[in-house]
Design a protein that fits this description.
Layout (H helix, E strand, L loop, with lengths): L26 H16 L4 E2 L5 E3 H8 L4 H6 L1 E4 L5 E4 L4 H11 L6 H4 L2 E10 L11 E10 L4 H18 L5 E6 L3 H16 L7 H9 L10 H8 L10 H16 L5 E2 L10 E9 L8 E8 L2 H4 L7 E7 H11 L10 E5 L2 H16 L4 E3 L6 H11 L3 E5 L1 H6 L1 E6 L5 E5 H14 L2
Parallel strand pairs: 1-5, 7-8, 12-13, 12-14
Antiparallel strand pairs: 2-4, 3-4, 5-6, 6-11, 7-9, 9-10, 10-11, 14-15, 15-16
Helix pairs in contact: 1-6, 1-12, 6-10, 13-16
This protein binds histidyl-adenosine monophosphate.
Length: 436
């Protein structure tokens, strides 16, 4: 016997609602969530970009950063049959920039310089320790605005992130923001932080001692209690920001105040990817437990030069769909659990034939309609109707057919009435609209 053929650790299936299981894993919930995300960003002028789910390993190594957890321990790397080094994408930003460089025209051309507002939605892969809200294959919805440099455009991105949550029906979302300044600010701060923490490195966790050399900034977001104590007397990033970087951040928060957008300044928010500068942010939810970050993003740079192109300003974020679906499933009791509105049963061959045009009319009215096709007696047909979760069953026998009508049964109340064929589709549409 070989290994059991089950799904790989850290993955999950998204299932038809009739299969039961955990509500957040039901496909109708995912479909309506995805539709809401697409609709919201469409109204902000964003267009979809689809890139391969695998890319050259070096794209992520150099773009996300060698010192990041993603590159150092979480990537799904593999060699293909021609020994190319490839990686299942751990995030969407690098693929988006690579696609723009490859398809966006010659450097210097108007096409290359045009502002791009892009969104993507799809699976990402990280070899993390699985737990609630953390998976090895997960789904991100992300946006990238390329060619916009202003602090006002940073605010635009925050507005979009919050509007997405509102339109999707996510309650109690909190915004945390911080600034990572520019590259020179970060270098000054990193060396001061390193110097300071070196003197007390014995107090730090093993992970933070490792980070002290590689990227001391990441120590700031450590949750280890010893690290937190050591950080209390450490230098503060705020004191190392240039006047220009501080002013940029002050203007950002001023506009947020003006727009009545509430936020918390979190000086420990540094993000786990190396490409950020200036604004960084996360959206969190009290409904998520330990993995409370629903979305993360900010302004970033350096990725175009990595691909040997003139640098362009860019800002964006990624949101985890699993975490959104979990919140929605908790807060919404009205999850659809049926795959059919009208199940049509014909008793006898001519009755059954008469149902085909009627089912088409129902679908034209926007109803989900199925004609019963299987052998067997009426109880069996009704059982199949029930399994689809149909709201109505339309039943036609020879005598109804002669009269040009059908018996229409509302499955929940068990009420039944006769209705002329030509009125059925419209009548059912208005009946359905009135159902609670
Ligand atoms: P990130 O913070 O690594 O950012 O991921 C964004 C979101 O993806 C997280 O807030 C979380 O909801 C979700 N997520 C990440 N890892 C997992 C996991 N293992 N299981 C479930 N959900 C997860 C980025 O990926 C950046 N590319 C975002 C960005 C776009 N920045 C600028 N543009």
């Amino acid at each position: 016997m070989g290994e059991p053929l089950v799904r790989p650790k850290g993955t999950f299936d998204i299932l038809p609602s009739s299969w039961g299981g955990e509500p957040w894993k039901r496909s109708p919930l995912w479909q309506s969530l995805e539709q809401s995300l697409r609709d919201t960003v469409k109204n902000w002028g964003y267009e979809e970009l689809r890139t391969p789910i695998f890319e050259a390993t070096s794209l992520f190594q150099r773009g996300v950063g060698e010192s990041s957890d993603i590159v150092s321990k979480e990537m799904y790397n593999f060699l293909d049959r021609a020994d190319r080094r490839l990686t299942l994408r751990p995030e969407g930003t690098l693929g988006a920039i690579r696609a723009l460089v490859e398809n966006g025209g010659q450097p210097g051309s108007p096409q290359y310089r045009a502002v791009q507002r892009l969104f993507y939605l799809g699976p990402m892969f990280r070899y993390e320790r699985p737990q609630a809200g953390r998976y090895r294959q997960f789904h991100q919805f992300g946006i990238e605005a390329i060619g916009l440099a202003s602090w006002q455009s940073d605010v635009e991105i925050l507005q979009i992130a919050l509007e997405i949550c509102k339109n999707a029906g996510l309650p109690d979302i909190q915004l945390q923001i911080n600034t990572l300044g520019d590259a020179a600010d970060r270098e000054r701060f990193k060396s001061a932080l390193r110097k300071d923490l070196m003197t007390r490195s014995h107090q730090l966790s093993e992970e933070s001692r490792r980070r002290l050399q590689l990227n001391p900034l990441r120590i700031l977001d450590s949750k280890d209690p010893d690290d937190r104590v050591a950080l209390q007397s450490a230098p503060r990033f705020e004191d190392f920001l240039s006047a220009e970087s501080s002013l940029r951040f002050a203007k950002t928060t001023e506009l947020l105040d003006h727009l009545d957008i509430s936020y918390t300044r979190n000086a420990s928010l540094v993000r786990g990817l190396d490409y950020y500068s200036h604004l960084v942010f996360e959206l969190t939810s009290p409904d998520l437990g330990a993995q409370s970050s629903l979305a993360g993003g900010g302004r970033y740079g350096g990725l175009f030069s990595l691909l040997n192109r003139p640098e362009r300003p860019a800002v964006g974020f990624g949101m985890g769909l699993e975490r959104m679906a979990q919140i929605l499933a908790k807060s919404r009791a009205d999850l659809p659990i049926s795959s059919c509105d009208v199940y049509l049963i014909g008793i006898g061959p001519s009755a059954q034939r008469a149902l085909y045009p009627l089912s088409r009319e129902c679908r034209e009215q926007g109803l989900r309609a199925l004609v019963h096709t299987e052998e067997g007696k009426l109880p069996k047909a009704l059982q199949l109707a029930n399994e689809t979760g149909a709201h109505f069953v339309v039943l036609v026998g020879e005598s109804e057919l002669q009269k040009g009508e059908a018996s229409v049964k509302h499955m929940r109340s068990r009420s039944e009435r006769n209705c002329p064929f030509r009125q059925i589709a419209q009548q059912l549409r208005s009946d359905l609209a009135e159902l609670p």
